[in-house]
Amino acid sequence: MLKAKRFYSFDFVFFIAIVSLIVSTFFLMVDDGNQQQQRNLTERTVYRSFVSTLAQVKSNATLLFELQYTYGPILSLLDDANKAINSPENLQLIQQQLQEKLQSQFRVSSKIFPSQKIYLNNGDLLLNIGKYFYDGKKVAEKKGTELNGGLEKVLKRLKPSFGLSLENGRYLYRYFFPVFNASNEFIAIIEIAIPLANVQYISSNASNMKSQYLLAKRPLLASAQKNRFYQETEFSSSFFVNKHINLIEANLSETDLDELKNSLSPIEESKLMQLKQFSISAQVAGQDGVAVFMPINDVYGYNVGGVLSFIPTTKWYVSSTEFNTISVMLMLMLVLVLLYAMRKSAAIYRMKLSYQQCLDVLPFPIFLKDNNDQYFGANKAFYDFLKVSKKQLLDVDQNSEHEPDALKISIAEINEAGGCIEIESDNLKKDDNSIYKVSHYEVVQQGTTRHGVIGYIEDVSHYKLLNDSLKSSLFDQTEFMDILPLGVRIFNLEGRATYINKMFKSLNGFNVNDLLNADCEAIFNCLECHNNVCSLHKNKISKLNQRVEVIKYNVEGEAKTYEVTYYPYYSINKNIQGIIELTRDITIHKSLLDQNHSLILTDQLTGALNYRGLMSAGENYFRLAQRAKKAYFVLYVNVVELENINAMQGKQESEQLLILFTDILKKTFRETDIIARTGDDEFIVLMNDSEYEIVDNTKFVRLDENVKKFNSTMNKAYRLVIDTGIVEYNAGSHSSLSSLIKNAEQLVYELRLKRSLN
Questions:
Q1: If we measure between CA atoms, which residue out of 474, 450, 298 comes closest to residue 370?
Q2: N or C terminus: fewer CB in 10 A for the chain?
Q3: Is the pLDDT of residue 535 over 70?
Q4: Stretch 256-284: mean pLDDT, rounded?
Q5: Quick one: pLDDT at residue 202?
Q6: Are the C-beta atoms of residues 448 and 455 closer than 8 Å to each other?
Q7: Taking 50 as the threshold, does the pLDDT of residue 727 lie above it?
Q8: Which burial class, exposed, middle or buried, applies to 696 when counting CB atoms under 10 A from its CB (0-12, 13-18, 19+)?
């Protein structure tokens, strides 16, 4: 939906605003109530002027100090002066050197600060550069404690100090800076001073302000006695460096000052007595203005007086002659508005013409309808497209014959559709099989009034062909992916699945729609959901192929083993676009490998470990015993007369005996002990971290007792007899597990030899 704005309403509001502004200005000019606002503005101007001037002077004093007195040779001379404080001759020489180095620079800085002094680190005056130079008669002059409160602050705190003080009858703003040498040792104090009159002149020069300084000799006495303790200190020309300044224009005369004082009310006199700032409307020498009193602090921070300033202001009023003049101006403005409206109408016509030219240069057809669904404009391409003239199109009786059905959409239908209707048609033109899209947009004025319809026609045949080709390509790609014997997932760079084939669904059983646009493992867990181990994340960062074996749970909760391979894929510009994941179910393959591994390491008859399994598992325990120096035992067992039992009772009976004996071993020893059948009638037990103590290395009591119980409960024609040998690991004797087993086997061999001899 397009929203249109009318030009005339905006212009009308614009001119009404101008007229209202002029009329409002006229009433403000004749309104006496603006005097209070003007006085408040003047008061703020005076305060800001003094504050900003002092801030500027302070900034300039700081800059002057940094540029002039932190120079390396100056610091060196100041350091030498402190060392020569008790040597007048050396000190005088240093003073001359300082004066020579600073004189050239002082000629520039004296234009702002005519007084500069240097004090030693004990407060003694070293050098006075200014209007009165050091005469060389005295080496150093003690500081005046009654005047140099800022100097005392610097000596105590070693920080800069600023304020107003009285020196030789002159009020100065004084700035004291501590000076430190390269070793950060306090060596001197620099004073930079500016007369109060200079500050007053700088702040009032731009506003025609006249001022006078009022000095309070004593604080807070009765207002009736104010003449006794207030005196006026005129600004002497000696305070100024620039002799061209007219001080008379900047100062209040004695008559003007008396006139101002006499105009003070009791409340204002009280504020003046208490040195509190205030302002009043006043008249001096027949001129209206505002008088502002601003207190001033000395170097100690106490109020010592203030500046009473007068700023002339203009009182606005309108005479009868001026009123008639303004009336004539308003009439002239009304005439100008009418002329402007006429010119605007011509400008709108020219604008419509330029719009039509802009439409004609567009290569696609554009049409315009009003709120009655009648054509009122189109571009040249539209006329050529329908092969009609402008007259035929705008004629209500003829345009229906040339208008296709796709264009016969009413403004009401467009409004019901939300302000826009797009229609595709393949019979918009005769003998033309191209596909066109016709777009209709409702044009609405500001508000709810429907103004009309704007539409355009676009040939979308090539887009349709491209779309059909793309759909065919995607179909072929999907079919190819679905016949692959691998599960395929495609991820974007955010780790979300954008494609999943049918084989992937058959591998895990989850619904494909649940996995699309989901996080990498939002449905099932691959146990590698951290960036440090996630293969998908590693593949995106390293841009290399990744192959992992993971265990995942399918929809039925079964744990499956999968081989997953990740491949990055790139755009034409060789920028990585995402990750392709290929998944293969290797659960059966892994199961067969595990079974094969079990067959290699275990004895098929008894289920115990074989010799290979014993050595594989026992080596870890043996190395642990070596490092931790823990107890480690090997029990070697031989089942006696197993061959005779096999010959007399049969193979099945002898095998059953071996199985039962394995159960006896499992009941006798701990689960952490390793039990293995290493021969037809030979067993080995490895005991790690056991508290067993060997009393007889050919007897294991608990095993012998379990064998006796077995013989007493089993009704057999034979008895179970075993020979045992127990050896404990010794670091000096046993370098390997094989040597430890060999010692235990030697004990059993000796028992077997004794039995054969008997």
A1: 450
A2: C
A3: no
A4: 82
A5: 67
A6: no
A7: yes
A8: exposed
The crossing angle, in degrees rounded to 10, of helices 34-68 and 196-204 is 130
What stretches of 606-650 show up as alpha helix (H) in DSSP? 611-628, 642-649
Please count the CA atoms within 13 angstroms of the CA of 462 that sit on its side-chain side.
2
Task: Give 44's Cβ-side CA count (13 Å radius).
Answer: 6
Q: Which is nearest to 718 in space by CA: 649, 631, 672?
A: 649
**Residue in 700, 673, 691 with CA at minimum distance from that of residue 618:** 673
Q: Output the DSSP codes for 83-135.
A: HTTT-HHHHHHHHHHHHHHHHHHHHHHTTT--EEEEEETTS-EEEEEESS---
CB 69 within 8 A of CB 190: yes
What does DSSP assign to residue 435?
A: -
Q: Please tell me the predicted confidence (pLDDT) of residue 261.
A: 80
pLDDT at site 139:
35
Amino acid 253: pLDDT: 75
Q: Tell me the whole-structure pTM to 2 decimals.
A: 0.36
Residue 236 has what pLDDT? Answer: 42
Centre a 10 Å sphere on the Cβ of residue 525 and count the other Cβ atoms it contains: 12
Tell me the three-class secondary structure of 535-599, residue by residue. HHHHHHHHCCCEEEEEEEECCCCCEEEEEEEEEEEECCCCCEEEEEEEEEECHHHHHHHHHHHHH
Band of residue 2 on the pLDDT scale cut at 50, 70, 90? very low
What's the pLDDT score for residue 26? 60
Amino acid identity of 567?
Answer: Y
- With a CB cutoff of 8 Å and minimum separation 6, the contacts of 74 are 68, 98, 101, 102
CA distance 46 to 295: 12
Mean pLDDT of 309-331: 62
Cα angle: 367, vertex 368, 370; to 5 degrees:
155
pLDDT band at 321 (very low <50, low <70, confident <90, very high): low
Q: pLDDT-derived band of residue 633, with 50, 70 and 90 as boundaries?
A: very high
Q: Do residues 260 and 310 lie in contact, with contact meaning Cβ atoms separated by under 8 Å?
A: yes
* 508 has pLDDT over 60: yes
Tell me, what's the pLDDT at 317?
A: 43
Structure tokens at 185: 């040792």
- Pairwise CA distance, residues 656 & 716, whole Å: 12
**Contact 622/735 with Cβ under 8 angstroms?**
no
Rg (CA), the chain: 55
Residues 590, 591, 594, 596, Cα dihedral to 10°: -110
Whether 193 and 106 have beta carbons less than 8 Å apart is answered as no
Beta pairing partners, 279: 292
Long-range Cβ contacts of 2-11 (<8 Å, 24+ apart): 2/441, 2/442, 2/443, 2/444, 2/454, 3/443, 3/444, 3/445, 3/446, 4/443, 4/444, 4/445, 4/446, 4/451, 5/445, 5/446, 6/445, 7/344, 7/348, 8/344, 11/340, 11/341, 11/344
